């Protein structure tokens, strides 16, 4: 079945949807207009759905060629939220909402999922299983996927596998990037409050200097990655914020350090968290101070299932060609809430090329000039459809 031809036939409709969503961005758990637009589209196509995770949507296409002995269900996911960023692009579909922008391509992800829904629903009598459609809110903030999972989107009917994608400004439109095993890092934001005893900067002997303690903690934390994690495993400890003090000649009572940890295995994730606590407490104690430590449990690692990766490579072949399937060598240190789905079911996540270097469409995600080459939209639709169809029809 030529899904790319079907996707090209509705390309204009999909571009209109994408541009409308792009013009009207909404932040996490505020996506009421976007959610309603999704529901209106599903209503028009006769696809049943329910509201989940406040502004998320879970829809179901029931296959008509289902064997009662082996009913499979595959889920396709698209995230729907935007970012708190001013859109500085000069084009007819720039954001109309001040300070909000689809700067990460979620408008394209939503559109691609709607396109796949339309096509798969049109051939549902030929589907040997079910397709769930997961429109995820708040991917950029708290990870709407985990709330959707808690509300049972992977059950009734039981989901056997999940597919997700993300547009990439680093890959030319017409190509995809994929890899087995770990695709995205796990994240643990942290806050360390260093407490000392304030006083005059000219008389440090009467104080317990939290600035000095904080400085030692920051420097020593870098030794965890360079000297305690094997060099073949990527890991990052970044301190992005330091606050303390009010004047040059005053030693403050407290300094606050904030940062992130990124790791690629569950073992290293636990190890780095443990060492952050040990180092911070040890240095603070040795320098007569105290620390309060808060480590957040943010997104886990995103794991790609080997069999699902091979399936997607096969189903992408007729859409983009073998020469346009890039086997990525390294995982991304960025995080992705699709990881929550990948922790629950066999999953595959890939980068959909959206850049056009000749036209200058290659600004980084989360920047105020981000855009996509819209020719990637029917490509994404076709790959999603073909992968879902083949998964349900294979023995």
From TrEMBL:
Q: Which residues form the Peptidase M20 dimerisation domain?
A: 190-281
Q: PANTHER family in the record, alphabetically?
A: METALLOPEPTIDASE, PUTATIVE (AFU_ORTHOLOGUE AFUA_6G09600)-RELATED, PEPTIDASE M20 FAMILY MEMBER
What protein does this entry describe?
Amidohydrolase
Per its UniProt record, what InterPro entries does this chain match?
Answer: Amidohydrolase, Peptidase_M20, Peptidase_M20_dimer
Q: Which residues cross the membrane?
A: none
